[in-house]
């Protein structure tokens, strides 16, 4: 079938809106009409050419919501008309990782997903007879896409697509990192580096669990107001403080953070996030994605003296299990998504969404088909 998609033909070039061909679902696969998709910093990162797994031409986008249009042979858990959120971290419930109960990083289709193809090793998308790659197993910058059954969370039908699409990445990543990865307890002091689409969700997660101080760190002063509305109690702009950020935060928190979260993707701020943690127990969670070839460093003494460095993908959430619950939290008014969606655009204007993020003018732009 013909579909409308924003195609990334080359790294560093704007997306091009084209009519692309999409094959129907093979066994175990599902055809989904995407109704809305957010633009995450990771899409921008991959388009920049910094992602070692970034391959082109591809259809980017991994923060979507839509409706099942057709199911392939053998699909049992989904039916035509179901509302779904695509999962770049699937949940097969059978692989070593899923059954370990120690991680959300399902490995059943990771190898092919990382290469931009479906589990059978081929792409369903093509343009002028040549294959176009999938992205993070989702490709939500197309009004129709095909996904494996295990990479779709079934969600309630009364939830608005143009808001819950954000649960497909940013909301779950931020809130999940607090709840599932770190297990932040009431009364903890939390420091969040980067107050964009992910960091603000870390803030609302920290507030939800009853954190004490919630310190936000960002070089963009315009982030302060919204962050305070979401629960930030103290703002640190590294460009405005005298001396070093780590010392400043350690003093502000009376000894260091119980938990810190890096939501930027910068290896220098990752080090600061670790080193501003409390001696003996502070835990730092890396969420930000850093470019090809970059490495983190610190003095081992930081770990010897009890700080813990860990990372989080998709907030540690198990997609098919947890995403429907997070949609319920939104529908029950427990979390705020609406105020983080600063721009809504038609597909034709998707490059504006990338520009707004690049310029620090948006939190989330959502494309509505
Ligand atoms: P964003 O662009 O909306 O936000 C980034 C924020 O960082 C901005 O407010 C910016 O002003 C701030 N910033 C930039 N440089 C800074 C610095 N040196 N010091 C302090 N603040 C700085 O991006 P986002 O969508 O929130 O994504 C954030 C990061 O998280 C990206 O690296 C993205 O790829 C990654 N990410 C990871 C996961 C995961 O599962 N691990 C999921 C989604 C996004
Ligand atoms: N492809 C990159 C890594 C990118 C990355 O870390 N992706 C995150 C999700 S970012 C969502 O906005 C993730 O879940 N990673 C786990 C995984 O298995 O991909 C690289 O460096 O190769
Ligand atoms: Zn994302």
TrEMBL record:
Q: What reaction does this enzyme carry out catalytically?
A: S-(hydroxymethyl)glutathione + NAD(+) = S-formylglutathione + NADH + H(+); S-nitrosoglutathione + NADH + H(+) = S-(hydroxysulfenamide)glutathione + NAD(+); a primary alcohol + NAD(+) = an aldehyde + NADH + H(+); a secondary alcohol + NAD(+) = a ketone + NADH + H(+)
Which biological process terms from the Gene Ontology are attached to this UniProt entry? formaldehyde catabolic process
Q: What is its EC number?
A: 1.1.1.284
- Which cofactors are reported in the record for this sequence? Zn(2+)
EC class of this enzyme? oxidoreductase
Pfam families reported in the protein's UniProt record: ADH_N (PF08240), ADH_zinc_N (PF00107)
May I have one GO cellular component term?
A: cytosol
A Gene Ontology molecular function term of the record: S-(hydroxymethyl)glutathione dehydrogenase (NAD+) activity
Which UniProt keywords are given for this protein, alphabetically ordered? Metal-binding, NAD, Oxidoreductase, Zinc
Q: Where is the Enoyl reductase (ER) domain?
A: 12-367
Family designation: Belongs to the zinc-containing alcohol dehydrogenase family. Class-III subfamily.
Describe the task this protein carries out: Has high formaldehyde dehydrogenase activity in the presence of glutathione and catalyzes the oxidation of normal alcohols in a reaction that is not GSH-dependent. In addition, hemithiolacetals other than those formed from GSH, including omega-thiol fatty acids, also are substrates. Also acts as a S-nitroso-glutathione reductase by catalyzing the NADH-dependent reduction of S-nitrosoglutathione.
What's the protein name?
S-(hydroxymethyl)glutathione dehydrogenase
